[in-house]
Design a protein that fits this description.
Number of strands: 0
Structural class: mainly alpha
Distance between the termini: 69 Å
Number of domains: 1
Helix content: over 70%
């Protein structure tokens, strides 16, 4: 337990600093909200619609794809640092992993997830028409 004492002290200092920063910020901040200050503001553009509108799912899909490919890069970097030690087994495992990630990219490409120009309803109706014809 005594070996963990410096870690515990550092953790308590970090939590105390964070709480103190939040408290001082709250106490010193001006408390005069106006409609301009409460309005949502994003990327330098004032909103044209109510913020209660749904957020397009396409953004979440791209974010999840980013995470998938980011994790692949992490695994590839870890594999590359131990390439000589892993041998053929490491090549086999990373090849299978890369195959599945590239298969995911192919699936996403065929489903037009990355195409921002096609409206979702149009895409849905086109796929239903192709199913009836084919």
């Amino acid at each position: 337990m005594i070996s963990w004492l410096p870690v515990l002290i550092m953790f308590l200092i970090a939590v105390g600093f964070a709480l103190a920063s939040l408290g001082v910020s709250y106490l010193l901040s001006p408390k005069n909200p106006t409609t301009e200050k409460l309005a949502p503001y994003e990327c330098g553009i004032f909103p044209e619609e109510e913020p209660s509108q749904r957020f397009p799912v396409k953004f979440y899909m791209v974010a999840m794809l980013y995470i998938v490919f980011d994790i692949e890069i992490i695994f590839l970097l870890a594999w590359a640092t131990r390439f000589n030690q892993l041998g053929w087994y490491g090549i086999l495992v990373i090849s299978i992993f890369t195959f599945f990630v590239l298969e995911t990219l192919y699936y996403v490409w065929k489903k037009d997830v990355l195409d921002w120009n096609i409206p979702r309803r149009k895409r849905y109706h086109e796929s239903k028409t192709e199913e009836k014809v084919g």
